[in-house]
UniProtKB/TrEMBL annotation:
Identification of the protein by name: Predicted small integral membrane protein
InterPro entries: DUF2160_TM
Residues that span the membrane, as ranges: 12-29, 50-66, 72-89
Pfam families the UniProt entry points to: DUF2160
Length: 90
């Protein structure tokens, strides 16, 4: 990844996102899902919930970085909880 001058955490972040997308694609091909309505106010599929979860995680990080002096690991933990909740019950 030297050609883009990425740091190791940045490369790991995008690699994890890529792996998540590949796994979700394989899961969808193996077992297609039916749209459903959970606690989110819209009907969603697995892919929709993944997108909403990732977007919410980005906002958690921006919120904690911008408004507090807490460790980034707290935002990461909150993001994981948020992503799990959206994927499971969203």
């Amino acid at each position: 990844m030297n050609w883009m001058a990425w740091t190791t955490p940045t490369a790991a972040f995008f690699a994890v996102i890529g792996v998540m997308l590949a796994l979700m694609s394989a899961w969808e091909l193996r077992r297609p899902c039916a749209p459903r309505k959970g606690f989110l106010p819209i009907v969603t599929t697995r892919g929709d919930r993944l997108f909403i979860g990732l977007l919410g995680s980005a906002y958690w990080h921006l919120l904690l970085i911008g408004l507090t002096d807490w460790s980034i690991w707290i935002a990461t933990a909150l993001s994981l909880v948020w992503l799990f909740a959206v994927m499971r019950w969203g």
